[in-house]
Records
---
Amino acid sequence: MFNSYVPTFWPVVAIVFFALMIWSVAWEGLALWKAAQQGDKYWFIALLVINTVGILEILYIYVFSKKKEQSGM
């Protein structure tokens, strides 16, 4: 019974995995670029080390880096 699900199950897993990988790399690259341009060393290191599938990166881009831009630093 289990063997009948294996051929249809793994292609879906592979597609989801590669889609998440592309999503994560794209957001991480954008967030790392922004952190480097703003000179945020600690954010750069945190974004580089912690993998949250884009969640932390999106928060940095749209929340935390905006606070720094508005404060004029």
---
Amino acid sequence: MRLLGKLHGYYPTDPYEASLVDMIVDTFEEVYVGILRANSSKIIKKLFRETMPRVIKLLEGFFNDGWLVQDKLSIADFYVGGFYTNYIWLEHNSGFKK
């Protein structure tokens, strides 16, 4: 994803902004791995109901003119947006409802 971002202008050239994008992508990667490794619906429910809201809350401080990190779209926005879209779909379509 980082390579595609660099090739197509979705990865910051500023080193500090690039490190923030990397941090966001790596954080969501850890959540993805947690979901993939979860072998019970109880663990998955906890990830979606407790971990994800905390991660989303953490990201609130990174918004800049509607985008994460920089003033234009980056791979962090694609990553978080894709994850959030899938999270919403799973929450409403997979039996994770209360």
